[in-house]
Amino acid sequence: MHFDLNEEQQALADSIAKQAPALFPFQARGRRGAAFDAAKWQEIADLGWLALTLPESADGLGLGLQDAAPIFEALGAHLALLPVLEHLQAAALLSDTAHSTLLQAMGQGKSLVVPALREAGGALDALPRHTRAVVQGEGVMLQGSKRAVPWGAEAAHWVVSAALSDGQTSLWLLPANAAGVQIKTYPGIDDKRLADLQFDGVRLPLAACIAQGQAAQDLLADAEGLGMAATCAEAAGAMAALHALTLDYVKTRKQFGKAIGSFQALQHRLADMLVKVELAKSLAAVALQVAADRQGRSGLLHAAKVQASQSARYVSEQAVQLHGGIGLTNECQTSHYARRLLALEKLHGDAQQHLGALAHAMV
Amino acid sequence: MSFDYTPEQESIREAVQKICADFPESYWLERDADGAFPEAFYRAMGDAGWLGLAIPEEYGGAGLGVSEAAILMQTIAESGAAMSGCSSIHINIFGLMPVVVFGTEEQKKRMLPPMAAGKVKTCFGVTEPNTGLNTTKLKTRAVRQGDKYVVHGQKVWISTAQVANKILLLARTTPLEDLPPGRTSDGLSLFYTDLDRSKIDVRLIEKMGRKCVDSNELFIDGLEIPVEDRIGEEGKGFKYILHGMNPERILLASEAVGVGRVALAKASAYAKERVVFDRPIGQNQSIQHPLAKNWVELEAARLMVMKAAWLYDNGRECGAEANAAKYFAAEAGFRACEQAILTHGGMGYSKEFHVERYLREIMIPRIAPVSREMILSFIAERVLGLPKSY
To answer: Which chain B positions have a beta carbon within 8 Å of A264's beta carbon?
Structure first.
């Protein structure tokens, strides 16, 4: 067992850590949802972030998800709102060679593809239940709806999951300009752009089918695993930054003539927070490592998401408490981290859901 | 709303404190080592009349309520007697309520005065192996033969059966399968009778704490019970014992508060005296704050206990409150005991400082007479109206 980064990983982590503060300066945004920053997207594509884990056949570097850890951590640490995770999930769903041209464009930041999987009800397995694909001659007709699709209104294509008439799962590549799609957008609690998609008789050629049956379910599980692991890593980055911010605050904020950080009760609280951050970081690292392993990943991914969720909640609540009233304001980054961490806690299943899944697997 | 104890309640507290002062923590430390029943304490409580606190005056008791009993038990626990002291007399206080409420005049005259005076000891024979808290599934059989019942079966976790002369026994008089549908809580009958050791094999269960108040497995083989020892009607025993359950929970809760308070007092005293880095450790916020938190919790628990007791004494429904008080008091007591050990550091682990004994004993009200989990299920179902989960 070793916990060090190798030379390449370290170099990448260092360069991302150097670039990130300038890339994502903090702005005390309102809560109306940030517009998609296309220029920033292009900038990180040019830095190679989007192609890092893409296959070499699509001009990617073919690296593993664990090598992308510094990217997720930086997005969390700097409160960056960009669809990197969704891009990588879509890439995983499109991983067979038939889509290498599209993958290539995605890696270059020229085409944004996001998965549209979630439905009302929010089951952990993300299998389609309300969206149906009915085969009609040479084509297929999509009927149903998807909920809270991150960056759904900004994407050029969606990867849509749908149930076939025989109950099998299927995956479809759907252009965002297809007729019969209604889009409703709104911001998430973390300001991320979300969209509900309504499909009314949307027609697609059979060739738009990415996979069906077991193959589709396997791909969905891969995307879900990737989502869980990346969410854990992003949360770890955000909570580490929030911890640092809070530590800084208690050192400077004075009460009773001395820095509040000189009080033992607060010192110990910060120590407890650090322990939670480190636990989340370690499990996030494991999660990224195992996310692609269809046989071995399940328990560790659940465990990582449980820890990430519990750590996120603890660190956020303590950070706000230690800041006092100022921690609730929009001017103070603390409130933004707290909202971001709450969103990450819920995304891809919260602690309760994953504890339930773990318990179910055990007994 | 008054939060004061009445003058009578105050005087109970003072009088009990005075008796308990004769049984210092060294007494309980010795009992924890030798496991001998605290006979002298039991006798002192009996002589002073406390064992009959809740038994009506005409049968030799004081006719007081659960509120007074709760104060009695908290005071005993808080003296350092902890669960060892409380459990040694617990059954005397409310155990025979079914006799008070459902017994005949002859039974009350025969059964209650010796208990109130502490002349006999009894034990409560309800729980069975494999039945747990599913009381209506009890298997111990009592078969009527003429003017007596003959009993066969097993009981487990029966406190004080090593020293008891009597047993309050719940046994099945009608097999479960012979009961009409929807009446499955019938068919159990309640007896208060001699604990005949020629027919009941009492086997001690070695356990974590409260060594001087024994817990046992009972193997009952042909115990004969005269019909006149049956309390109330045949088949209604489950209903009768339900009558004592809320008071029992309230008392356990009060005992837990008392244990928590003595642990907290020990910890605070130690934190004031013990000097490290040239100042008392109690000057550190990390020592102060957890103890302050324990005080808050114990105070909240005490109020919950007194509210539940007040409801009961005023003839009001108190199931949710009695259960909630038991749940919260046991948890608060446990946290105080744990913190007391942590405050003492290594010394907390030594028997000489007493707090480790409290921690071993406070596990009892966390588990008995009903588990935390069952209480949460009860509150979810009966208070919040959520569907039954088991």
So the answer is: 284-286
